[in-house]
Design a protein that fits this description.
Number of strands: 0
Number of helices: 11
CATH architecture: Up-down Bundle
Strand content: under 5%
Order of helices and strands: HHHHHHHHHHH
CATH topology: Rhopdopsin 7-helix transmembrane proteins
Number of domains: 1
Structural class: mainly alpha
Shape: elongated
CATH superfamily: Rhodopsin 7-helix transmembrane proteins
CATH class: Mainly Alpha
Radius of gyration: 23 Å
């Protein structure tokens, strides 16, 4: 197993940068996630698919906030690989893919609700959302426990991959944890925005509601790309460096990865803002859209002789 020497100055600078970022993240993330839990678990009365996804997202973010102080300590003191390292690292590395998968599920849920309103009644339900999330938790826990066990047997320092042996499990994770979900989120979000813009032109009564929904989807998409893309791109570069055995680039790529992961981890604070407002709007929006469209379809079939009219926002809620 070939190892490369590290640049201690870059390592110390990276630890300082992480301290500067993570102290505000912890200071904001803990109270914000506490408030979010209270809102989604206690204040909301009606169970919806979005509510189920949001609670699971908050659980994932809470795991991250719990693990961050340990990760900072491990980085500062080059903590060795042991049982504590194994436990904290497993908790830490489960958070990010779980957050990505939940955000992807939210995007798919919106897409199905708006694009296939009739099928949505069968495909969507809070129970199905909870079952999907439970399945993802189980799969990720099993996968990462096995992966961390393999890592522990090869590396001496807790958070560092010192060897430059290419890790094909890392490449697998990069593709399936991020790039496939990224494609799904972009496709679903653009389709939803396109559909809403078309409906704005034909339904002036709903224009304001649709504009808010378009803004929410656009902001969520931008946050997703900005937070996670740099980290997974640098992981891809790290895999390329390992394949090329380019020791001279290892310190720079490792530093870039540690900086980008700070941006990705700050997403636990942004989730609270973005998805709280998304849940607030889409609590009525996904159920509103299928009902309106299916009702319009039925009315057009049963009242062909009557002049068509757009249903108002109030009529949709009365259905």
């Amino acid at each position: 197993m070939q190892n490369c020497t590290d640049n201690n100055m870059l390592q110390n600078s990276t630890v300082l940068f992480q301290l500067i970022v993570y102290i505000p993240v912890l200071s904001l993330g803990i109270p914000l996630n506490t408030v979010a839990f209270w809102v989604f678990c206690c204040k909301l009365k009606r169970w919806t698919e979005t509510r189920v996804y949001m609670i699971n997202l908050m659980i994932a973010d809470s795991f991250l906030l719990f693990a961050l102080p340990f990760m900072l300590y491990f980085n500062m003191y080059n903590y060795p690989t042991d049982k504590l390292c194994f436990t904290i690292r497993s908790i830490y590395f489960i958070n990010m893919p779980m957050s990505i998968f939940i955000i992807t599920l939210i995007a798919i849920d919106r897409y199905v609700a708006i694009k296939f309103p009739l099928k949505a009644k069968v495909l969507r339900s809070p129970l199905k959302s909870a079952s999907t999330c439970a399945f993802l938790w189980i799969i990720l826990i099993i996968y990462f426990c096995l992966r961390q066990e393999f890592h522990s047997s090869k590396e001496r320092i807790c958070l560092w991959k010192q060897s430059i042996e290419p890790s094909y499990s890392l490449l697998f994770s990069i593709i399936f944890e991020f790039f496939i979900p990224l494609g799904i989120v972009i496709f679903c979000s653009l389709q939803v925005i396109h559909c809403l813009r078309k409906k704005m032109a034909t339904s002036p009564h709903e224009t304001k509601l649709f504009q808010k929904a378009i803004h929410i989807v656009s902001v969520n998409l931008c946050v997703f790309i900005v937070c996670f893309s740099p980290f997974y791109t640098t992981l891809l570069f790290r895999f390329a460096v390992d394949v090329a055995r380019a020791c001279s680039l290892l310190s720079q790529v490792r530093t870039a990865t540690n900086i980008c992961v700070c941006l990705a981890n700050s997403n636990c604070c942004l989730d609270v803002f973005c998805y709280y407002f998304a849940a607030k709007e889409f609590q009525e929006f996904p159920s509103l859209f299928p009902t309106c469209i299916s009702m319009r379809s039925k009315m057009s079939q049963s009242t062909e002789s009557q002049p068509p009219r757009n249903m108002t926002h109030t009529e949709c809620h009365q259905l």
